[in-house]
């Protein structure tokens, strides 16, 4: 046989050709004398392809074989072994080529060739060499067969996916029989991978029995998406043809969605759409011209159609699942809808969506497609797509993957961005759901009460729960409840006493329905969750049908599912009535935690602030405002309160996934104290941002708690623990730090850590006497903290749980003990007379996108006089950019933001780039506007001429003055009116945009400024960046600033009050940096926010003497001189890297930086130095500075000297910061060993030359033996200044003087 015979076939056969051909090439010469060698090789390859890659529906009877003695065609070798090789085409006698064509037909499906796959398990010895383990393959069950069967193909290995894609399904329809259709993935599991010849396919793992492959799963999702698109069009068409005489469940829901979108309009007494005819006319116009309607209407119609169609498709998919999973144990005449109807009839009428969904706003379409004449083809279309792909469901193992992918890709990512924002709704990954149940569920206890009842009680349904109750207070689409039901069914399957008894299965089914409680605020998600839960109950129903049919058991009647469409934060009771009596009774039960407790409460609450989206004001009768009250309380904390109040004491488990901020932030300080007193803290698992949800930047925390029977605070008399009280374990906190690891890898690492027998969280043999770090994984950080009373919570730092985190060190505890007696650095909730600073935050200049403008643009638009009158310089940076700044669209497929739409066509340069904060320690780095010369201190008396941005100083009263001065046709008035309409459409009571600017600091002559959101401390941002502003620049709510109290401390008479310079150095020190991280971090990633209440917790060590105040002021003044000069040169040379080097304490320059400095020196530019020395808080000119530097000519100086000067200045800046750090160490009495630990925590590295030349000193004043005459005698008595500090100050002064000489052309 020639291999080229494959080439005569059509192009669709090339996939098979590439698979079979290598095998033939490798084995063709094995049996050269055998007349059937080539043919059998081809036959073996065909079997291998069929066995490993295709699903076959078998024929009834093997063919009769002919006798060789009669001269007819000799029986085919495989026919003797039981393989059916019949073909619809005639076979020619004594024609070997015909035989070959027959088996080519088998491989290529060229004709209606039917092969009995049962022969694969009984092939004779002749094929033992090809399939060594063929005799060990399981024999398929006896199948009821019909000749009216087609070939159906299913790829079961990723290497062979192209075969399934290249062979189209046969055109004939499948005739359904009573027995289950043949399914290769269920009845015929793929043999081990060594059966597959290496030359044919690579080694791959066979799928589990009943589990769909990845390709099949993806195919199902694509089919569902295809039907969803058709269903959505059908929904719009049915709405367009809606009759006025028929009640429409869609109209009230569409009006509700429209009212949510039309927030810019006043509350209307009438709905936006008055009648079905009104909606019909709008839809007709929308159908003819979709882009002509208002954006809100188009969004609502499209979104509603998507939700309704999605519900219909999932209910159709539900029918297909019930048919596949239950159809083979029911009557052969049942249709898909009849089988689903029989299953749903077991449930209460309120749960049966076939009965109760006709008037539901999201289920009416599903009823319509089944009851209209002629009937809709959508259900049949979905079944045909699944059958054409030969996909049949035998288990639910792939359902979670299918549904989560379908729900995420075709709903959440398509049109539900607003929906997600309003509800805080994101699909919890299945792996996280399983992990959370693994951590809190006790499989042994699931059926303990049920089995005890079956052993000791008569056959009656008890009044006590037989299965532990579980609650999901924000169930979404039911992922956690479905997983719980799956585990209960798995436990029942492993208990023969339950699985083989119709009575026990009835009790189990009823108890399981009674045990599931869930609440969901969103109607669409609620209905999806109910259907999803019913899907996961199908295996239990199938088993009941299997067991009950022979025994003629009574019809299964289930109680109503405890699922409520309600707001968990309010649990609103329905109006009394016959229809609502059940819901009213059970909601009252749920509202009272003393009457109803749950064994398990597992959920994923919304990540939202209270009053955001649909999160309303909680019912005060359900929550303790003494614990949960306060500004900034996150909504998920209210859900946590619900969980903790309703869980069984001691035995009950609460497991949540939330952001990690609550364990350290101040908004939860009272709740943390309550949790520590009333709960057992057991396990915490940290996840990096984007890990659990790829599009969510917030880091996540999975944690498990148990409610105490008696609070810790009740210590007398000692409470007796109740029965079945678990032994308290150490508090385990795990954090996986490898950002490249997948979510599944991290979950496996967490699980493996708890399976080890050496950690105190699981092994009682290990003594948890002290907190310990345990992990064999280099990427794992783990810490076990002894439980109370051996560990006590701190009340100094607002009951923070930061001490539980593996990254926490003893430095914070030592600093807390060291500074506990000190006053605070600024005022907090109350005025503290000992606090030297006052905290301020810039005003909320909403809409900030319009009230902050580029100064040059404003001058061109409004004129010089208007800008002088109404604009002031502002410290601001643009944190956004328009990726499509040349167009108003904001990029393909994306809706442009309000900011982009507003500035498009006004100031094209406003959003050309995303700017980083210009804040730098001591001295800000100010950008330039195009080629405008911008001085560091500003040009002119107030600096407005050099400001890159300016703030429009118009408040409520200013708006009236502006109207009187310029009139409503004035350019600034028109601009502010346009800004209000575009950016504040809901503020209809305001004519123009304005803001309260009284906190902007324009009237403050000297202030210490810092961005309020600082983010992380990293290598490029190693320190805080407090800088001094003496130009009266405004700030927005991007920044906070400090002012020094004008009064003296009454207890410190005779001592000079520290100036701004003193506090500037103090705030930029390493000691304060560590204290800021401790007090101001808002998550476990180390991000910081400089809120007033947080800053008020930082301790302040007053200087012991006037000499200490003067000493630190000298160091800071020299630092200002050096940094001002470096920043000025960096701005002129366009070398921002110099500023980054200065941040990091580096002074080496690379080749590019050296070349840039030389090139700038060659250009001969005029530069204002702006070096203004500040001595003892004054602003007089330094003696080494000059007002203006002369022109630098090419022959005036040596370019290499500038490079040397830059290195000297960078070195001086680094050493000056080191001196400031050492000064503050002494001021706070930080010992050298604690200094080293503190710097290690902050990742601050000091080279060996630092230790040699500038050693750490003791905490007492030292006699200077090295500084010589550089130390002024007036500050010799300083006890905090290091002995070498004066040397550093003198060197810095010399470096500035040398730099000035180079820049002025003097040697």
Automatic annotation (TrEMBL):
<feature type="compositionally biased region" description="Low complexity">
    <location>
        <begin position="60"/>
        <end position="70"/>
    </location>
</feature>
<keyword id="KW-0808">Transferase</keyword>
<feature type="domain" description="Type II methyltransferase M.TaqI-like">
    <location>
        <begin position="515"/>
        <end position="693"/>
    </location>
</feature>
<feature type="compositionally biased region" description="Basic and acidic residues">
    <location>
        <begin position="73"/>
        <end position="83"/>
    </location>
</feature>
<dbReference type="Pfam" id="PF07669">
    <property type="entry name" value="Eco57I"/>
</dbReference>
<dbReference type="InterPro" id="IPR002052">
    <property type="entry name" value="DNA_methylase_N6_adenine_CS"/>
</dbReference>
<dbReference type="GO" id="GO:0006304">
    <property type="term" value="P:DNA modification"/>
</dbReference>
<keyword id="KW-0489">Methyltransferase</keyword>
<feature type="compositionally biased region" description="Low complexity">
    <location>
        <begin position="762"/>
        <end position="779"/>
    </location>
</feature>
<keyword id="KW-0949">S-adenosyl-L-methionine</keyword>
<dbReference type="InterPro" id="IPR050953">
    <property type="entry name" value="N4_N6_ade-DNA_methylase"/>
</dbReference>
<feature type="region of interest" description="Disordered">
    <location>
        <begin position="759"/>
        <end position="792"/>
    </location>
</feature>
<dbReference type="InterPro" id="IPR029063">
    <property type="entry name" value="SAM-dependent_MTases_sf"/>
</dbReference>
<dbReference type="GO" id="GO:0032259">
    <property type="term" value="P:methylation"/>
</dbReference>
<dbReference type="InterPro" id="IPR011639">
    <property type="entry name" value="MethylTrfase_TaqI-like_dom"/>
</dbReference>
<dbReference type="GO" id="GO:0003676">
    <property type="term" value="F:nucleic acid binding"/>
</dbReference>
<dbReference type="GO" id="GO:0009007">
    <property type="term" value="F:site-specific DNA-methyltransferase (adenine-specific) activity"/>
</dbReference>
<feature type="region of interest" description="Disordered">
    <location>
        <begin position="58"/>
        <end position="98"/>
    </location>
</feature>
<protein>
    <recommendedName>
        <fullName>site-specific DNA-methyltransferase (adenine-specific)</fullName>
        <ecNumber>2.1.1.72</ecNumber>
    </recommendedName>
</protein>
């Amino acid at each position: 046989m020639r291999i080229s015979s494959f080439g005569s076939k059509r192009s669709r056969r090339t996939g098979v050709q590439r698979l079979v051909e290598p095998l033939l090439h490798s084995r063709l010469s094995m049996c050269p004398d055998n007349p059937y060698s080539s043919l059998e090789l081809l036959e073996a390859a065909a079997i291998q392809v069929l066995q490993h890659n295709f699903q076959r529906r078998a024929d009834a009877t093997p063919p009769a074989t002919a006798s060789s003695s009669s001269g007819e065609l000799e029986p085919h070798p495989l026919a003797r072994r039981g393989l059916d090789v019949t073909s619809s085409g005639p076979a020619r006698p004594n024609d070997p080529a015909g035989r070959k064509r027959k088996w080519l037909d088998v491989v290529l499906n060229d004709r209606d060739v039917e092969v009995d796959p049962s022969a694969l398990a009984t092939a004779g010895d002749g094929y033992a060499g090809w399939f060594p383990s063929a005799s060990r393959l399981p024999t398929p069950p006896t199948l009821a067969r019909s000749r009216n069967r087609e070939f159906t193909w299913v790829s079961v290995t990723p290497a062979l996916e192209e075969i399934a894609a290249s062979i189209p399904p046969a055109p004939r329809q499948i005739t359904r029989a009573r027995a289950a259709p043949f399914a290769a993935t269920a009845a015929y599991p793929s043999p081990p991978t060594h059966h597959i010849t290496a030359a044919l396919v690579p080694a791959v793992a066979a799928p589990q029995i009943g589990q769909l492959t990845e390709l099949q799963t993806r195919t199902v999702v694509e089919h569902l998406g295809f039907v969803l698109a058709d269903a959505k069009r059908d929904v719009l068409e049915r709405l367009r043809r809606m009759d006025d005489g028929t009640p429409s469940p869609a109209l009230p829901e569409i009006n509700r969605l429209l009212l949510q979108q039309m927030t810019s309009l006043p509350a209307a007494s009438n709905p936006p759409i008055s009648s079905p005819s009104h909606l019909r006319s709008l839809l007709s116009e929308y159908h003819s011209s979709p882009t002509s309607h208002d954006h809100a209407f188009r969004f609502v119609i499209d979104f509603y159609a998507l939700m309704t169609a999605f519900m219909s498709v999932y209910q159709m998919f539900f029918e297909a699942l019930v048919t596949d999973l239950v159809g083979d144990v029911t009557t052969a005449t049942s249709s898909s809808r009849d089988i689903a109807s029989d299953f749903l009839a077991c449930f209460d009428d309120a749960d049966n969506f076939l009965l109760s969904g006709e008037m539901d706003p999201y289920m009416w379409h599903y009823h319509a497609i089944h009851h209209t004449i002629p009937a809709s083809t959508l259900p049949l279309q979905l079944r045909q797509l699944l059958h054409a792909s030969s996909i049949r469901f035998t288990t639910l193992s792939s359902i979670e993957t299918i549904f989560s992918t379908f729900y995420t890709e075709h709903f959440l990512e398509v049109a539900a961005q607003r929906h997600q924002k309003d509800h805080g709704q994101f699909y919890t990954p299945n792996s996280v759901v399983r992990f959370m149940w693994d951590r809190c569920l006790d499989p042994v206890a699931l059926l303990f009460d049920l089995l005890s009842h079956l052993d000791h009680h008569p056959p009656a349904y008890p009044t006590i729960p037989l299965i532990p109750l579980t609650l999901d207070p924000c169930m979404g689409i039911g992922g956690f409840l479905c997983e719980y039901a799956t585990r209960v069914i798995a436990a029942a399957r492993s208990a023969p006493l339950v699985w083989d008894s119709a009575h026990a299965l009835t009790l189990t089914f009823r108890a399981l329905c009674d045990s599931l409680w869930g609440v969901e605020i969103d109607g669409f998600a609620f209905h999806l969750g109910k259907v999803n839960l019913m899907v996961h109950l199908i295996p239990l129903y199938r088993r009941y049908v299997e067991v009950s049919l022979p025994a003629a058991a009574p019809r299964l009647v289930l109680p109503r599912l405890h699922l409520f469409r309600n707001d968990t934060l309010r649990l609103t009771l329905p109006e009394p009535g016959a229809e609502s009596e059940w819901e009213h009774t059970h909601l009252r039960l749920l509202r009272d935690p003393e009457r109803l407790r749950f064994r398990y409460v597992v959920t994923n609450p919304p990540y939202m602030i209270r009053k955001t989206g649909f999160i309303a004001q909680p019912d005060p009768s359900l929550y303790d405002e003494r614990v949960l009250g306060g500004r900034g309380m996150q909504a998920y904390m209210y859900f946590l309160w619900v969980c903790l109040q309703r869980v069984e004491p001691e035995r009950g488990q609460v497991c949540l996934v939330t952001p990690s901020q609550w364990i350290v932030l101040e908004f939860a300080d009272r709740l943390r104290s309550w949790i520590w007193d009333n709960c057992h803290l057991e396990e915490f698992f940290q996840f990096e941002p984007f890990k659990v949800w790829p599009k969510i930047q917030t880091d996540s925390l999975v944690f498990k708690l148990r409610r105490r029977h008696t609070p810790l605070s009740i210590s007398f008399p000692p409470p007796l623990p109740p029965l079945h009280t678990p032994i308290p374990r150490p508090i385990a906190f795990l954090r996986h730090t490898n950002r490249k690891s997948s979510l599944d890898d991290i979950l496996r690492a967490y699980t493996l850590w708890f399976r080890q027998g050496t950690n105190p969280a699981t092994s009682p043999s290990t003594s948890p006497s002290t907190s310990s770090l345990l992990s064999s994984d280099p990427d794992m950080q783990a810490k076990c903290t002894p439980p109370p009373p051996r560990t006590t919570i701190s009340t100094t730092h607002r009951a923070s749980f930061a001490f539980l985190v593996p990254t926490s060190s003893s430095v914070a505890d030592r600093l807390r003990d060291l500074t506990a007696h000190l006053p605070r650095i600024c005022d907090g909730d109350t005025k503290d007379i000992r606090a030297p600073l006052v905290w301020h935050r810039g005003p909320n200049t909403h809409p900030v996108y319009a009230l902050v403008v580029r100064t040059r643009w404003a001058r061109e638009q409004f004129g010089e006089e208007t800008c002088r009158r109404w604009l002031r310089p502002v410290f601001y940076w643009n944190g956004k950019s328009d990726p499509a700044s040349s167009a108003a669209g904001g990029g393909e497929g994306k809706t442009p933001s309000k900011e982009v739409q507003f500035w498009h066509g006004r100031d094209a340069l406003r959003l050309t780039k995303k700017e980083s904060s210009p804040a730098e320690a001591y001295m800000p780095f100010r950008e330039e506007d195009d080629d405008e010369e911008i001085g560091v201190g500003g040009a002119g008396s107030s600096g407005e001429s050099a400001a890159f941005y300016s703030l429009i100083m118009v408040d409520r009263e200013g708006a009236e003055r502006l109207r009187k001065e310029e009139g409503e046709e004035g350019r600034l008035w028109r601009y502010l009116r346009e800004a209000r309409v575009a950016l504040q459409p809901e503020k209809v009571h305001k004519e123009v945009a304005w803001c309260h600017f009284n906190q902007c600091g324009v009237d403050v002559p000297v202030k210490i400024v810092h961005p309020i959101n600082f983010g992380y401390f990293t290598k490029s941002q190693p320190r805080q960046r407090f800088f001094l502003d003496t130009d009266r620049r405004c700030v927005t709510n991007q920044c906070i600033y400090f002012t020094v109290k004008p009064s003296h401390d009454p207890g410190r008479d005779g001592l000079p009050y520290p100036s701004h310079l003193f506090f500037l150095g103090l705030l930029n020190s390493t000691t304060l940096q560590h204290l800021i991280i401790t007090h101001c971090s808002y998550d476990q990633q180390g991000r910081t926010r400089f809120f007033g209440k947080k800053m008020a917790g930082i301790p302040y060590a007053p200087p012991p003497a006037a000499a200490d105040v003067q000493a630190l002021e000298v160091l800071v003044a020299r630092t200002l001189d050096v940094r001002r000069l470096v920043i000025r040169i960096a701005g002129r040379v366009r070398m921002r890297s110099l500023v980054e080097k200065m941040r990091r304490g580096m002074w080496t320059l690379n080749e590019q930086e050296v070349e840039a400095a030389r090139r700038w020196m060659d250009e001969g530019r005029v530069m204002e130095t702006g070096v203004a020395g500040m001595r003892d808080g004054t602003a007089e000119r330094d003696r080494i500075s000059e007002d203006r530097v002369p022109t630098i000519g090419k022959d005036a100086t040596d370019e290499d000297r500038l490079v040397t000067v830059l290195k000297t200045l960078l070195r001086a800046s680094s050493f000056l910061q080191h001196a400031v750090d050492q000064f503050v160490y002494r001021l706070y009495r930080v010992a050298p060993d604690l200094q080293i630990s503190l710097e290690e925590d902050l990742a601050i590295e000091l080279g060996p030359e630092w230790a040699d030349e500038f050693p750490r000193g003791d905490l007492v004043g030292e006699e200077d033996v090295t500084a010589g005459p550089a130390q002024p005698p007036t500050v010799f008595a300083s006890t905090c200044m290091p002995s070498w500090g004066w040397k550093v100050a003198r060197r810095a002064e010399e470096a500035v003087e040398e730099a000035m000489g180079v820049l002025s052309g003097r040697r």
